[in-house]
Amino acid sequence: MDNIESLLHGFTIAVTLPHLALMLIGVLLGILVGVLPGLGAPNGVSLLLPLTFGMQPVSAIILLSSMYWGALFGGSVTSILFNIPGEPSSVATTFDGYPMARDGRATTALATAFGSAAFGALVGVVLITFLASWVAQVALAFGPPEYFAVYFLAFASFVGMGGAPPIKTVVSLAAGFAIAAIGIDTVSGSVRLTMGIDELVKGVSFVVAVMGLFGIGELLLAAEEEFHAKAVSSAIDWREVFRTLLGLPRYGWALLRSAAIGCWMGITPGGPTAASFMSYGIAKRFSARKASFGRGEAEGIIAPETADHAAGTSALLPMLSLGIPGSATAAVMMGGLMIWGLNPGPMLFIEQKDFVWGLIASMYVGNIVAVVLVLLTVPIFAALMRIPFFITAPLIFIICTVGAYSVSNSYLDVLLMLGFGIVGYLFKKLSYPLAPLVLAIVIGDKAEDAFRQAMLMSKGSLAIFFSNALVATLVLAGIALLLLPLILQVMHVRMTRPVLD
Amino acid sequence: MISRRALELATATLTGVFGAAVIASSIDNGIGWSTAGVDAGTFPFLTGVIVLVGSLWNLARGWLQNSQHVAVSASDLRRVIALFVPAVVFVAAIPLIGVYVASGCYMLGTLALLHRLSLQRSLLIATATPLALYLVFERMFQVSLPHGALGDVIGF
Q: B7 touching A, CB under 8 A?
């Protein structure tokens, strides 16, 4: 039971006054970005990133991850009270959350959401506690070909299971790799893809990309929709909260199933958004009360919320033990790790024990802090939503601009952010997925290095990717996932053809 | 009014041009296999090819798609422009007058002129914004934001 021991040691790091204060700040800021449309977890975390450069890595990651938990919870608040998803991953929560709140059961809806979210997160953290170090141990034996195969598998699973149009996913991914390659090539030292702009030699920071893609892009979309915040009552009845939480175990099966879906999508990396939609769809298909879905059915809140948080939490597992982030926000955090001078991947579990276990322990505590804080602050943040969008929008824009600038004190970064903003708007509008783009920008260099080192080992022969059982299995699984959309389409045509005849 | 088809075509063209630029630029770095291993341009070249081919596919699909579905209606577009154009002006003004003055003017302009908020409130928000930026960045986190050419002149 090495893990338990390490975890207990982790608690001694996480549960100190300064770290609890950081969790508090992180969660509150997280709820804020989760509630505000146009600010989400990925760009909230990247905004905070430049401010953590002077901190201890473990303190910094506690702050950033707490912000992530806060944002996940904050997104559900607006979904339920305003029918406006604060985060893409809480869209599915609006389906039943808002109708229930409109029926005068806002407290029940919120408590159901938070209770199941906390359960999902707990399952995710327990999974990390027991699995992460084991995965890291296995990964210690990985060489460059195995690493490239794992990257390949991760990216293929976006194409096969991400839910977006496959070719659009491929374009998004490959564009991300190209952006990652901009600047000085670490192997040969030659300058690549700067297109004559000297300042691009330093490369394109993923923080700037995230700020534009998620921040500005989302802002433009929100402006277009021009929502009117028509809130239902946000007063919290505490007795109802406890009654609802005590009643949750009745939905045990739905909770477990949704948590399993969430963990799977978080690790593989399908991401929280895909997880919540998939979980909602499955819950609806198998529920005995199918007809009441969409009209305030509790299971319709439990399914997406549990999966969303399970996926959000378990997305940190591959980030820590393999160096592959499972979601866009995890990608930003991993970028942070590299900036702080840590090397995400199996060696982290050996060289940075305090960091890893401090983080894992903080995930237990941070989620409890988040549940309590979000319940306490619902009325405050609900009031914030009543500030007209035309006031918050330019403020958010200014914050993103300053955030992009402060990454490396460069005006070019601000211009790049604007460009990424337009791309983000177009991509979201046309359902090109953004998460693979960000992931590719963050780990593009590592994937390329793994590929080139593998090629060096084999003197240029691709056969190295089939040279042993492990690497061959990974590559074949990746290829299968890439072909999955095609196979499904062929099957669909086969099945519908007789009807057409 | 912009149709979905037009937007699909425009986006696919945009990604396609990017892909082509990546290909052209990485050929200069050398592609293929040499004594030093995989040449620097190889990996970007491959990603460029994937982007270009995928874009052509998306372009063809967008072209064949015969829907008159509206992606952005005229009023949507007006709202997006009303947000984006002042924002671009704000960014363009930064090298001249610095972030602080620019953000104040930007807030005042959008609130009072564009959205007809009362002058009193607009002024309040327009002064509070740069002040908050200054306190958080310059003071708390010691991050210097651009003061612009104006800052050089008045010695800030």
A: yes
CB contact under 8 A, B129 and A187: no
CA distance A437 to A93: 25
**Out of A170, A411, A456, closest to residue B54 by CB:** A170
A192 touches chain B (CB under 8 A): yes
CA distance linking residue A85 with residue A72, whole number of Å: 11
Sign of the CA dihedral A174, A175, A176, A182? positive
- Residues 6+ positions from A320 with CB-CB distance below 8 Å: A128, A132, A136, A344, A348, A349, A356, A359
Q: CA-to-CA distance for A51 and A26, rounded, in angstroms?
A: 12
B6-28 pLDDT, tens per residue? 999 999 999 999 999 999 999 98
User: Residue A195 is encoded by which pair of tokens?
Assistant: 């297109």
Taking alpha carbons only, the member of A1, A255, A259 closest to residue A124 is A259
Q: Which of B11, B38, B146 sits opposite A430 (nearest CB)?
A: B11
Q: Which amino acid is at A36?
A: L
- Tell me, yes or no, if the pTM score tops 0.90: no
User: Hey, is the C-beta of A451 within 8 angstroms of any chain B C-beta?
Assistant: yes
CB contact under 8 A, B90 and A423: no
Domain encompassing residue A472: 2-500
Domains: count for chain A = 1
Residue with tokens 């979980």: A279
